């Protein structure tokens, strides 16, 4: 009987390994960027085309490779980081498994150019599907260049699973940002389809964060610094008032490696307890340095999850350090009832000695001198007095006469004669004088209502009232009993159909803003907004295209206030984290749902009786009033028979 188990060929094994290492173009970007960082490069350039599907190229000025290393780096489990098993627990570099280049070369056309500084000539290698096509000597600059073309060309099924260019580009952007944030001492540049996306010179942590996130990020950052025997923490957290709906700007770096940790994220949220609104997420950029032997980074294929030896201690230190920073910079409230902020000494007077104040007196001042700018007072007569007071600055006059008991005042220089008694103005109004009425310039028109506009049933229905319960539900009586409406879901349904109708017929009304709004977002968010602009304009938004680094809103829909614009856009970006639908109808549907969620009246909001009536009437005027846009019931019905059964028990 022939043996059943057999060894797989290398090219098949490489394709299987590629399923773990290379999931999308962003995976290639991550591996190549990390290799460039490990090569001690000071300048790294990333070039992609078609979101990385056609080309991913990384050029660095690192140490380069010899001819032997250039050939050997494409072999399976070939690495320069590990010599023995114990090295796995003392790693200070990034790529170490030796599977990346072999896996990438198995599913793409790959071209490598490398040269060391001391060599006169470099090596140029071309590989297609794990097969070496050519290897030759070439004149090259110092460093290494990897170009990966036609990803998944030999695995069509994997290529069909790739998302749209927008989604894939966002994943590439995320990987680039993570590597660039972890290494601010390296100059990074990023080009997509010939356009420059980033050009980040070597700088500090704060400058690198501002350079990537752009906008007004600098004023949002609160520094965090803590040094203990267990962990060293550096970085920044954002002020609570700048919290967002999504979790896009949350970065943990452990030993200069980006990680994801729900446990550490919970520590950050605990530090913000009581400072954030419901559903808001703080932004943070935290760099943790721990001894390499206290972590295990080999528990996930992408190496984004790390196991710590003492997680509880790290949790407590991280939470305390963030809470201390928020309190130190007066971001968190401080309970001090005896302190009066008005008595605080300004910083520029802190070290100034107290001196005796000096008084300057003008000894030459004479209040009785005759000056044009001074006031004039004259006296005349002995038994009676009359005086005049004038001021050129106030243009007023005063006159008085008699023995001092009577006086008159006029606010103008021209004397106004007193009118007759005010009662005389109304004399004759109570008498009917046809001639007076006819001569009056006003005409009066009386209408007599001959019949009611409503029948008795409608009048009875109009007098029925709605009631709000716990600022959440609206109760309205009907013939068979009553209905209980969820005010938030009902308003979502109303707004959803309104926005969808406006986007379909493209007839949305817009109100122009006297002062346009400037909204700042990161580069990846701005790219998403640019693609959503045509759909948002159909809802009533008007954008100014003169600015490219931030969003300028000059017009908004009529049912949105200025303060709600940023909330609507942030909620929209949060809902589109998984990508913008390619279908126009699906895109409009997603935008309408997101805007309805943002603008709908929330649970806990008080509604007047008129607002309750409008909400109930608007709900039942919808095409589908039974469910919200998110497939949840908007109201329930209770019949009188059901209520009777409750009392019959």
UniProtKB/TrEMBL annotation:
Q: Per UniProt, what is one Pfam family of this protein?
A: DNA_mis_repair
State where composition is biased (Low complexity): 381-410
Top-level taxon: Bacteria
How is this protein annotated for GO cellular component? mismatch repair complex
Q: Name one GO molecular function term.
A: ATP binding
Occurrences of domain DNA mismatch repair protein S5 (ranges): 209-327
Q: Does the keyword Nucleus apply?
A: no
**Statement: the UniProt record of this protein carries the keyword Magnesium:** no
Keywords assigned by UniProt, alphabetized: DNA damage, DNA repair
Give every MutL C-terminal dimerisation domain span: 465-607
GO annotation terms (biological process): mismatch repair
**InterPro entries reported in the protein's UniProt record:** DNA_mismatch_repair_CS (IPR014762), DNA_mismatch_repair_MutL (IPR020667), DNA_mismatch_S5_2-like (IPR013507), HATPase_C_sf (IPR036890), MutL/Mlh/PMS (IPR002099), MutL/Mlh/Pms-like (IPR038973), MutL_C (IPR014790), MutL_C_dimsub (IPR042120)
Q: What does this protein's UniProt record list under function?
A: This protein is involved in the repair of mismatches in DNA. It is required for dam-dependent methyl-directed DNA mismatch repair. May act as a 'molecular matchmaker', a protein that promotes the formation of a stable complex between two or more DNA-binding proteins in an ATP-dependent manner without itself being part of a final effector complex.
The entry sums up its family as follows: Belongs to the DNA mismatch repair MutL/HexB family.
Q: What is this protein called?
A: DNA mismatch repair protein MutL
């Amino acid at each position: 009987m022939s043996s059943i188990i057999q060894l797989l060929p290398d090219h098949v094994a490489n394709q299987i390994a590629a399923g773990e290492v290379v999931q999308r173009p962003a995976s290639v970007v991550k591996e190549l960027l990390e290799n460039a960082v490990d090569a001690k490069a000071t300048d790294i350039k990333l070039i992609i085309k078609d979101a990385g599907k056609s080309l991913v190229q990384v050029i660095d000025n690192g140490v380069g490779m010899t001819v032997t290393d250039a050939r050997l780096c494409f072999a399976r489990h070939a690495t320069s980081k590990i010599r023995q098993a114990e090295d796995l627990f003392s790693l200070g570099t990034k790529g170490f498994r030796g599977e990346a280049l072999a896996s990438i070369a198995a599913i793409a056309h790959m071209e490598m150019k490398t040269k060391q500084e001391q060599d006169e000539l470099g090596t140029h290698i071309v590989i297609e599907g794990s097969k070496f096509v050519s290897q030759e000597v070439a004149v090259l600059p110092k460093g290494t260049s990897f170009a990966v073309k036609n990803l998944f060309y030999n695995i069509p099924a994997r290529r069909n699973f790739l998302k749209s260019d927008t989604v894939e580009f966002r994943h590439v952007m995320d990987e680039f940002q993570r590597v660039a944030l972890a290494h601010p001492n390296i100059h990074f540049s990023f080009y997509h389809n010939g356009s420059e996306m980033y050009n980040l010179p070597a700088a500090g942590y704060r400058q690198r964060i501002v350079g990537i996130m752009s906008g007004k990020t600098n004023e949002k950052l609160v520094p965090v610094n803590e040094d203990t025997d267990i962990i060293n923490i550096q970085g920044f957290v954002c002020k609570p008032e700048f919290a967002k709906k999504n979790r896009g700007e949350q970065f943990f770096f452990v030993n200069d490696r980006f990680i994801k940790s729900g446990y550490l994220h919970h520590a950050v949220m605990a530090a913000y307890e009581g400072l954030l609104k419901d559903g808001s997420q703080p932004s943070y950029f935290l760099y943790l340095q721990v001894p390499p032997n206290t972590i295990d980074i080999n528990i996930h294929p992408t190496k984004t999850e790390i196991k710590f030896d003492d997680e509880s201690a790290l949790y407590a230190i991280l939470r305390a350090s963030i809470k201390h920073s928020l309190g130190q910079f007066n971001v968190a409230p401080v309970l001090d009832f005896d302190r009066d902020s008005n008595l605080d000494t300004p910083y520029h007077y802190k070290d100034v000695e107290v001196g005796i104040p000096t008084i300057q007196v003008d000894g030459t001042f004479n209040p009785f001198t005759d000056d044009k700018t001074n006031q004039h007072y004259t006296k005349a007569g002995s038994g009676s007095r009359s005086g005049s007071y004038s001021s050129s600055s106030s243009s007023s006059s005063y006159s008085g006469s008699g023995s001092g008991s009577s006086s008159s005042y006029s606010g103008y220089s021209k004397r106004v004669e007193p009118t007759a008694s005010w009662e005389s103005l109304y004399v004759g109004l109570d008498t009917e004088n046809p001639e007076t009425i006819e001569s009056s310039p006003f005409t009066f028109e009386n209408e007599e209502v001959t019949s009611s506009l409503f029948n008795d049933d409608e009048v009875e229905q109009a007098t029925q009232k709605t009631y709000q319960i716990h600022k959440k539900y609206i109760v309205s009586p009907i013939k068979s009993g009553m209905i209980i409406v969820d005010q938030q879901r009902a308003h979502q349904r109303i707004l959803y159909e309104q926005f969808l109708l406006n986007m379909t017929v493209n007839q949305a009304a817009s109100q122009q803003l006297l002062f346009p709004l400037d909204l700042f977002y990161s580069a990846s968010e701005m790219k998403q907004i640019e693609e959503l602009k045509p759909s948002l304009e159909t809802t009533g938004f008007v954008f100014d295209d003169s600015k490219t680094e931030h969003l300028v809103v000059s017009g908004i829909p009529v049912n949105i206030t200025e303060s709600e614009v940023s909330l609507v856009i942030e909620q929209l970006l949060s809902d589109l984290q998984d990508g913008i639908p390619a279908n126009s109808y699906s895109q409009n549907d997603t935008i309408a749902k997101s805007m309805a969620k943002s603008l709908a009246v929330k649970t806990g909001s008080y509604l007047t009786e008129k607002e309750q009536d409008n909400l109930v009437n608007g709900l039942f005027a919808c095409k589908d009033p039974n469910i919200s846009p998110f497939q949840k019931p908007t109201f329930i019905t209770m019949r009188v028979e059901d209520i009777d059964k409750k009392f019959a028990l």
